[in-house]
Specification:
With about 750 residues, this protein is α/β, with parallel strands linked by helices. It is about 50% helix and about 15% strand. Helix 11 packs parallel to helix 21 and helix 16 packs across helix 17.
């Protein structure tokens, strides 16, 4: 039988089963909804509505899944035979498992153990790990099936075509479709990370476009599928760089049938953990001390800084901040030792002012009469021994009334206000540390201590910086002992986390295993200063980790990757490799600052049908200027600042910092001149590398004056190719000319 006819017949069979299940599920859903309206009060008391609501929820979710998969119910087939069997089973691999009415499996869920062979193995003798142990067998057919809108459009047998040819089907698409289609094109090195055991800490170094974010999401989906009976989705946490990025990837999770998980930025996590609002200010202004500021910010993200805070908290938790007790009528009734004991005597929390307040109030109410009698005694004596009408008697009477009011009327209020004053916000405790930092920063010199304090406390300018978040979490942890009950934490764009950040996350989430994804070449925040992932594994995870590498890029074309590599080399890093997917040559255009070239290019791309376009500027000022030009021309665009939370595709204007982790169909770098991206600045080169690796299909680089030195090698290479091309053409013309002359001479000689 013709393979196309064979596969089409099977597709028709699967589609028929899905359509029937959708119809049946919709009928059952309508019946359940009607039944819910007729439940009596007694039925509800017996809990019947809870069972009914669960059934309604189950049916709704199943219909949603079926509606999604019916357009493309599977993407692959492999014919597998366990060695003990004589017959090959045809296994179709898809987003979700599917059975017919008799219980026969029509589609295998990609997360099932047996499906791992589809990603890892070629035809021949293979094995996979099943719950009952290793299963050894033989694959004699492995096939990629492209199905679009219920129509089989292409069949690719993997023993005939190359892996790169198969990937073309999934990479030559728009950015908003590519991430959703990765299940069909997961590569072996990605699959090994996705299916790593849940109890392993995984650190992934991946080049730009290597699929780190997709792998992170698919690992979450895989783990939830395999541990759903023991661990719920709310025990999973995904940390992304910002809300816009989290919204950008959020549409992928339902496609993977992932139940709701927690998604936060590190700032969101800090705010939630502290239970107080944290407003992050911008960086310190540029000055002659800029280099020193960068070094201090690196220090604030180091474990040395953590040790300084340890010393400070040792003093703080011993109650050294308690300078006076609680007094009534000039008598200290609850002294500083009592206060220290009351706020530090708990088991669950190392310091708890609310508990201290309650202890003090309870004792005060039990002993208030004795307290009153003790304080008022001397004045009663004066009152009784003084003659009527004398000033001494009047003053004693007045004092007795004041003491009575201070204890019986205002006593509880006095105690509550006292504890409220000493119950400092974590941000205030941190400021107290900065105020006394010269005492604790023992590994800095005296001049450095003075400068540190001047920069971050005395100036009053910084407020809370991004670099301070780890310290805030750590102080809260040491004071309260608060822990979060997550079991799996995935961190994307992790190259921008400092060592201190990883340390505090591990401290506050002791039950969690971590999957950490990043690219040191894209480390755009100098304060993070990660030297290697091995350092994280050793210092944070006590060597209990696995380091995995994704060295091939799948996002950009070969041409874009080739143009990005000189930037990597300027950072002293190895070149990246990419899948063999070709597109347009990267275009370099010397342009003035009137934005006319940029606008023309964007309009051309829109006419060509591109759905997401990135315009990347060096800083916010430049980006805002471009955005205003678009607004004035009536062109809809999104300016990617901290306030934007929703991803809608279209034209996006931002900086390397704001587009980090995103990808677009096409990208324009607005000005890649040397004055914008200093080739001698590592920070600038990291930013430039992020910028030149965001495009899937087409990259245009504009520049004014002089192009950045790190990119000049690309234009020189193009000049060489052009010269060679002209020479090749001229060489052919010269050769033809000489041949013509020789023939003419021979003919003349014969004549």
């Amino acid at each position: 039988m013709d393979i196309f006819i064979e596969e089409k017949e099977y597709l028709d069979k699967v589609l028929d089963v899905i359509e029937k299940e959708i119809e049946t599920s919709n009928d059952n859903l309508m019946k359940s909804l009607k039944e819910g309206k007729t439940l009596s009060g007694d039925d509800k008391k017996r809990g019947a509505h809870f069972n009914l609501n669960q059934e309604i929820d189950r049916l709704s979710k199943r219909i949603d899944v079926l509606d999604r998969i019916i357009l493309s119910p599977y993407f692959g087939r492999m014919d597998f035979r366990p060695l003990r069997d004589s017959k090959y089973d045809k296994l179709y691999i898809g987003r979700t498992g599917l059975f017919d009415e008799k219980g026969n499996q029509l589609v295998v869920d990609w997360r099932a153990p047996i499906a791992s062979m589809f990603y890892n193995d070629s035809c021949g003798i293979v094995s996979y790990e099943a719950p009952e142990g290793a299963i050894i067998g033989d694959i004699n057919l492995k096939r990629q099936l492209v199905i679009e809108d219920k129509i089989l459009t292409k069949i690719l047998d993997t023993d005939i075509v190359t892996n790169d040819e198969i990937l073309q089907e999934y990479l030559n698409v728009h950015a908003d479709s590519r991430m959703k289609d990765i299940i069909a094109s997961i590569q072996q090195e990605q699959n090994e990370i996705i299916r790593a055991p849940i109890n392993e800490n995984i650190l992934v170094q991946g080049v730009a476009g290597s699929g780190k974010t997709s792998v992170a999401l698919h690992r979450i989906a895989y783990l939830l599928y395999n541990v759903k009976d023991n661990i719920s989705g709310d025990k999973f946490l995904l940390l992304g760089p910002n809300k816009y990025f989290l919204n950008y990837i959020s549409s992928v999770l339902p496609e993977l049938e992932v139940e709701p998980i927690k998604q936060k930025s590190f700032l969101d996590l800090t705010t939630d953990y502290l239970e107080e609002k944290v407003v992050v200010k911008g960086s310190l202004p540029k000055s002659k001390n800029t280099k020193d500021i960068a070094e201090y910010n690196k220090y604030k993200n180091s474990l040395d800084y953590k040790r300084a805070i340890d010393c400070f908290l040792d003093d703080y938790l011993n109650g050294d901040f308690i300078k006076q007790g609680i007094s009534f009528g000039g008598y200290e009734i609850f002294d500083t030792d009592y206060i220290k004991q009351s706020i530090t005597s708990g088991v669950l929390s190392k310091l708890n002012c609310k508990r201290g307040r309650d202890i003090t109030l309870r004792e005060f109410n039990e002993k208030k009469n004795r307290i009153y009698n003790y304080i008022v005694g001397p004045y009663i004596k004066i009152y009784k021994t003084s003659e009527e009408g004398t000033p001494e008697r009047k003053q004693a009477f007045q004092k007795i009334n004041e003491i009575r009011d201070s204890i019986y009327k205002d006593g509880e209020k006095t105690i509550k206000n006292y504890y409220k004053q000493i119950d400092k916000k974590i941000t205030d405790v941190y400021k107290l540390f900065l105020q006394n930092s010269d005492k604790y920063l023992t590994n800095l010199s005296d001049p450095e201590k003075k400068e540190f304090k001047e920069l971050f406390y005395n100036s009053g300018k910084p407020g809370i910086l991004r670099e301070d978040l780890a310290a805030l979490i750590y102080i809260k942890y040491l004071i309260s002992g608060k822990k979060l009950d997550y079991r799996q934490i995935a961190i994307d764009e992790a190259q921008d986390y400092g060592m201190f950040s990883f340390y505090v996350l591990k401290k506050i989430c002791p039950s969690a295993n971590f999957s950490i994804y990043g690219d040191l070449a894209q480390a755009i925040y100098p304060y993070a200063d990660l030297k290697s992932w091995e350092n994280v594994g050793e210092d944070v995870f006590d060597n209990n980790y696995q380091l995995r590498k994704l060295n091939k890029g799948y996002r950009t074309t070969s041409e874009i990757t080739k143009n990005a590599n000189p930037v990597l080399e300027s950072l002293g890093l190895s070149k990246a490799s990419s899948v063999d997917r070709h597109g347009k040559e990267v275009e370099y255009i010397e342009s003035s600052n009137d934005n006319s070239v940029l606008l023309d290019k964007v309009l051309d791309w829109l006419d060509e049908g591109y759905r997401s376009i990135g315009i990347i500027c060096k800083d916010d000022k430049e980006a805002l200027g471009v955005y205003k030009d678009f607004v004035e021309l009536g062109i809809k665009a999104t300016y990617l600042d901290d306030k934007v939370t929703k991803y809608d595709g279209g034209i996006n204007i931002g900086t390397p910092t704001s587009v980090k982790g995103l990808e677009f169909d096409t990208v324009i770098i607005n000005d890649a001149s040397e004055k914008k991206y200093n080739s001698n600045s590592k920070e600038d080169m990291h930013l430039l590398y992020v910028a030149v690796t965001r495009a899937l299909h087409d990259l245009v680089i504009l520049y004014s004056d002089e192009l950045c030195d790190a990119l000049k090698v690309n234009t020189k290479e193009k000049e060489k190719r052009l010269v060679k091309s002209i020479w090749d053409v001229n060489k052919k013309m010269l050769t033809s000319f000489f041949i013509f002359i020789i023939i003419a001479m021979l003919l003349e000689m014969e004549g």
